[in-house]
Amino acid sequence: MTTHRTPSAGTAAPPGTAAMSLTERQEERRRRILQATARLAGRGGYDAVQMREVAESAGVALGTLYRYFPSKVHLLVATMQDQLEQLHATLRKRPPTEEDPAARVAQTLMRAFRAMQREPHLADAMVRALTFADRSVSAEVDAVSRLTTAIILDAMGLTGPPGAEQLSAVRVIEHTWHSALITWLSGRASIAQVKIDIETVCRLITR
């Protein structure tokens, strides 16, 4: 396991650094930045998130913001990670109630989808950033993928480590959920169609 060096209080953590390696002051600053980003994106979507406005709203210097997040895409993908972490915590407190694993995963992903539905501008901004992300954002994108996988695996309720076929099914489910979110945001799919697609792909779990 890689050991993270805790940054000194006067320096910002490099992009992608785990929250546990931040000082309390740095973590509080990072939290303000992500909250400001979510507010701006929630009001006006992707184009409303401008680095200078984020810095002003979060009460940090523009240079400090760039040390935490080198670009708007880094910032919005990190915001998606933060939103998923909050969702994961909520799901652990109130797990799905269905008995069938496939139904539990479908229920979980629809809860995640409805959370996105309540903030369509924010959802669109985060998904666009995820789509635009290049290799420089790989750490943040990987974190989002790992969180999505963890949410699905939790919903499956496995008694042991997942097998290769189960992990393959989880990846297909994750891809379908992401695609369904994109088609809904672009107006090419209804919520009812999204629900059907998610329920259909989740049946891979019990094959």
Automatic annotation (TrEMBL):
PANTHER family: HTH-TYPE TRANSCRIPTIONAL REGULATOR RUTR, HTH-TYPE TRANSCRIPTIONAL REPRESSOR KSTR. This is TetR/AcrR family transcriptional regulator. Residues 27-87 form the HTH tetR-type domain. Residues 50-69 bind DNA. GO terms for molecular function: DNA-binding transcription factor activity; transcription cis-regulatory region binding. Gene3D superfamilies: Tetracycline Repressor, domain 2. Pfam families: TetR_C_20, TetR_N. Keywords: DNA-binding. Residues 1-27 are annotated as: Disordered. Residues 9-19 have a biased composition (Low complexity).
